[in-house]
Amino acid sequence: MSKQDKTGQCLCGAVKYEGLGERGRVHLCHCPDCVRWIGGPFMGLLFADGVTVADPAAVNWYQSSDWGERGSCRTCGTALFWRLRDNHRTTIVTAGSLDRNDALEPIEEHIFIDRKPPWYEFADDAPRLTAAEFMARMQGQ
Ligand SMILES: [Zn+2]
Ligand SMILES: [Zn+2]
Question: Which ligand is closest in space to the CA of residue 64?
Answer without folding.
Answer: 2
